[in-house]
Amino acid sequence: MRLAAITILGGLMLAGGTPAFADDPVEGQKVARMCQTCHGIDGLARMPIAPNIGGEPKEYLEAQLMAFKTGAREHEMMTVVASTLSAQQISDVAAWYASHTASASLPAGTSEDEAPSECVSCHGIDGISIALNAPNLAGEANTYIVTQLRAFRIGTRKHEIMSEIAAKLSDEQIRQFADWYSKVNLQITREE
Ligand code: HEC
Ligand code: HEC
After folding, report:
1. pLDDT tens-digit profile of 122-159?
2. Is 121 in the pocket of ligand 2 (CB under 6 A)?
3. What is the dihedral of CA 147, 128, 135, 154, to 10 degrees?
4. Considering the domain 2-189, what is its CATH architecture?
5. What is the DSSP track for 53-111?
6. Residue 12: helix, strand or coil by DSSP?
7. CB half-sphere exposure, 45, CA atoms < 13 A
8. What is the CA radius of gyration of the chain?
9. Residue 81 pLDDT > 70, yes or no?
């Protein structure tokens, strides 16, 4: 569903002549060398505290990198990384990771009915997000999901939708939802 939306958007941008932001995924691949120890060159995370970023929407990746750069979102590693990047490099590296495709499969023996009904409308049953501005949760490390939900809950990370949702979650719910999405199998691929 999201792919279809992206294809339509891409088509509109092409039809309109100049895309909203000029970006170059090939240049972005060079920038991604700075990211690969933690996020992998394809965006499959190499450490539990770092999220998978391959196949996320370009707008989402760019917005998060700009948030780290401006201080709207803070993290000891990412704040440093983002501060060294220009807006052009951010646009390019976001385009590189967005040029990948994320797909997911539920582990054997799980039923779709167990998926958290509070989350699936945006993040999908398998954690491949349906809403364009929402990131994938499929296969994120349990600890990453828990950390982000707690950050939204206490206000150290802010977002009009997620802050409100997280404010109402108990520790037990946070644990359950993190368990569900973290056990999904994630694949990240890229067509050359
Ligand atoms: C030393 C490890 C490290 C390096 C290098 C690194 N990151 Fe990160 N990145 C992290 C961690 C850890 C987080 C999670 C931050 C948090 O908990 O808020 C993160 C978060 C992010 C996010 C937010 C994703 C989301 O789902 O919200 C993006 C986007 C991102 N990194 C992109 C990059 C890019 C692009 C580079 C290279 C230019 C890079 N990172 C380099 C460790 C790293
Ligand atoms: C109405 C849509 C919507 C619903 C419902 C929703 N989310 Fe989100 N979620 C978002 C959006 C949009 C973001 C991106 C926030 C940002 O830009 O910082 C997000 C971000 C997140 C993140 C951060 C992921 C990352 O990569 O950094 C987590 C974790 C998360 N949501 C978990 C949940 C859980 C668990 C539920 C169910 C209780 C839920 N969300 C329900 C829209 C939604």
Report:
1. 999 999 999 989 999 999 999 999 999 999 999 999 99
2. yes
3. -30
4. Orthogonal Bundle (1.10)
5. -TT--HHHHHHHHHHHHHTSS--HHHHHHHHT--HHHHHHHHHHHHTSEEEEEPPTT--
6. helix
7. 20
8. 16
9. yes
CB 79 within 8 A of CB 139: no
Give whole-number Cα distances, 100 to 4, 58, 81, 103, 106, in Å.
Answer: 15, 10, 22, 10, 20
Name the residue among 2, 18, 1 with its Cα closest to residue 133. Answer: 2
40 CA to centre of ligand 2 in angstroms: 23
- In the structure encoding, which two tokens stand for residue 28, read together? 């972005």
Whether residue 39 is predicted with pLDDT greater than 70 in this model: the reply is yes
Token pair of 170 as six digits: 């108990």
Length of the chain: 192
Q: How far is the CA of 16 from the centre of ligand 1 (A)?
A: 32
Residues 63-85: b if buried by 16+ CB within 10 A, e if exposed: bbbbbbbeeebebeebeeebeeb
pLDDT of residue 22: 79
Q: Which of residues 67 and 4 earns the better pLDDT score?
A: 67
Query: Amino acid letter at 71?
Result: G
Verify whether ligand 2 is closer than 6 Å to residue 35 (CB atom). Answer: no
Q: How far, CA to CA in Å, does 156 sit from each of 72, 106, 149, 150, 163?
A: 9, 31, 10, 9, 10
Nearest CA residue ID for atom 32, ligand 1: 65
Upper half-sphere CA count for residue 75 (Cβ side, 13 Å): 18
Parse the chain into domains and list their residue ranges: 2-189
